[in-house]
Design a protein that fits this description.
This protein has eight helices and seven strands; from the N terminus they run ββαββαβββαααααα. It has 233 residues and is α+β, with helices and mostly antiparallel strands. Strands 5-6-7 form a three-stranded antiparallel sheet. α5 runs parallel beside α7 (197-207). The model is unreliable at 4-14 and 151-155 (pLDDT under 50).
Length: 233
């Protein structure tokens, strides 16, 4: 049975299917102008405060909202913090409780320097924003999630040591062959230091997204299976 939401208040009462092609536009129309932040990429994106409010407007009361730091930042992991958010909602459309969760990583390579100093707190906020977007089925990323990789700037800079450490960590965590991964595109790399910095950010973004990571594994089965690469590459 398709999920529907009954709109009330200033909107004409109607049932809007969450699978409708216009669902995202409808959700965005519920945000106050102060909850939409104009970002560096020129888009107006919802902030986490607006996402919390609109989630309750659309679905019902938020019963729990917890964030957990899965991995704190340290020298060995490239000062990358990983957080998970879990939210329990009372879904008024079906009269039952539903739990949603998601994770986020923050490192000096994917975050503004002024926020990277507070990597754990920033990762928790990003994880909450991702979870709230999952509840709302909203594809537009939030202002808190925007990273340098999302802002299309041409860069010829090569991958940094911190990026190499972080990429190796996530490849090991998700059982991905790093050599096969970086050579899965049009350009062949003889050494990891030949990889473009922007491309490395894109790899990190894909691997840390559960859906994109599994799609990549299904499309390129040869990348499955982590192997120690430092003496081979």
């Amino acid at each position: 049975m398709e999920d529907t939401i009954s709109t009330v208040g200033s909107f004409k009462e109607q049932e809007i299917p969450t699978a409708d092609i216009n669902w995202g536009d409808y959700v965005l129309s519920l945000f106050d102008k102060n909850e939409l932040i104009e970002c560096e990429d020129g888009e107006k994106r919802p902030n986490v405060y607006g996402l919390r409010r609109v989630a309750e407007v659309c679905f019902g009361e938020m019963l729990e909202n917890h964030s957990t730091i899965i991995e704190p930042p340290n020298k060995n992991n490239g000062y990358c913090a990983t957080a998970q958010c879990s939210i329990l909602m009372y879904d008024s459309s079906c009269g039952r409780e539903r739990r949603f969760s998601d994770v986020a990583d923050v490192s000096p390579e994917n975050c503004d320097s002024k926020f990277a100093k507070f990597a754990s707190a920033t990762a928790a906020t990003k994880a909450e924003a991702r979870t709230l977007r999952k509840i709302l089925r909203l594809n537009l990323i939030s202002s808190e999630e925007l990273t340098p990789a999302n802002i299309k700037n041409v860069s010829n800079d090569n991958i940094t040591e911190i990026q190499i450490i972080a990429l190796d960590i996530v490849c090991k965590r998700y059982n991905i062959n790093l050599i096969e991964l970086i050579n899965s595109g049009a350009k062949h790399h003889n050494n990891i230091k030949e990889v473009n910095k922007e491309l490395a950010d894109e790899y990190m973004s894909i691997i840390n997204d559960n859906t994109k990571r599994e799609e990549l594994k299904a499309t390129l089965p040869n990348i499955v299976g982590y192997k120690e690469w430092r003496n081979m590459f």
